[in-house]
User: Which sequence fits this backbone?
């Protein structure tokens, strides 16, 4: 039998600059958003056009606020409302962790709704392009969770070649569920979304790619939850579900509804070329 792997004890701080510290967790958010916007610049210009490269750049500030505010408030409301009600100053301590993907998703949806209304562009067409880039940030975030030695998995058989002992998790072999999520919610979901985004026949039906993302993420997250240890302050919900699985149910339903709506909708013509783009062509 192979020896059980020991967690490599990464330093959660990437760089120390005097009193300033840069953590892997913060870097994952920054890198995910920057890389996502770079990809979005290309995606919005694909036929039928959903926006301009300049609008993709402008969306950077909107999506950053949506992710941070939505992710933090979602964690507070979905996971520990009682604690933060009695410790309101702890809400500001984002460097200690405590972000919810489902809350962040709601924050981004609100940001997209306001942004597309302000710029008078099609919400669903723009959302289709944004959701293709989202798995990049998800994958990087889960890798940062692993580096931090947090959100570890459930107990695993010692015979499992990649079973790992986390220092703060009771000294028993566990599934490195953060890596499972990085591979499924991140890499696999990105490959599926990117491949689908290459088909103009799918881009012509606004909402299809966004619905595919919601269904894909909901299924991937629900699967990984079977290997992830539930939060100690929540445990298992009725029926053996976890909070993550419960929150994925409306995502999957909404995603399926979006796909059906998109397939029944008329073909989207897209935005006309700008004067600058016409000159370039």
Assistant:
């Amino acid at each position: 039998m192979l020896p059980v792997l020991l967690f490599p004890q990464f330093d959660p701080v990437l760089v120390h600059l005097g009193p300033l510290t840069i953590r892997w967790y913060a870097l994952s958010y920054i890198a995910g958003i920057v890389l996502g916007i770079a990809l979005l610049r290309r995606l919005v210009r694909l036929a039928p056009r959903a926006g301009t490269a300049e609008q993709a750049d402008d969306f950077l500030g909107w999506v950053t606020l949506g992710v941070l505010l939505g992710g933090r408030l979602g964690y507070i409301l979905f996971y520990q409302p009682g604690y933060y009600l009695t410790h309101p100053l702890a809400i500001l301590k984002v460097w200690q962790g405590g972000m919810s993907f489902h809350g962040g998703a709601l924050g981004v949806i609100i940001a997209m709704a306001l942004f597309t209304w302000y710029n008078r562009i099609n919400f669903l067409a723009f959302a289709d392009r944004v959701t293709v880039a989202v798995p990049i940030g998800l994958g990087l975030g889960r890798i940062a969770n692993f580096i931090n030695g947090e959100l570890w998995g459930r107990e695993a058989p010692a015979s499992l070649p990649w079973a790992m002992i986390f220092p703060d998790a009771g000294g028993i072999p566990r599934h490195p569920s953060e890596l499972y999520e990085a591979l499924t919610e991140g890499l696999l979901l990105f490959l599926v979304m990117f491949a689908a985004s290459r088909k103009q026949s799918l881009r012509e039906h606004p909402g299809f790619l966004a619905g595919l993302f919601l269904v894909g993420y909901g299924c991937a997250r629900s699967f990984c939850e079977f290997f992830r240890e539930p939060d100690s302050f929540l445990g298992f919900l009725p029926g053996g579900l976890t909070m993550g699985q419960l929150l994925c149910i409306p995502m999957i339903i909404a995603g399926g509804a979006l796909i059906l709506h998109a397939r029944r909708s008329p073909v989207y013509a897209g935005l006309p070329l700008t004067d600058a783009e016409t000159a370039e062509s």
User: Anything to note?
Assistant: The chain has a mean pLDDT of 90.
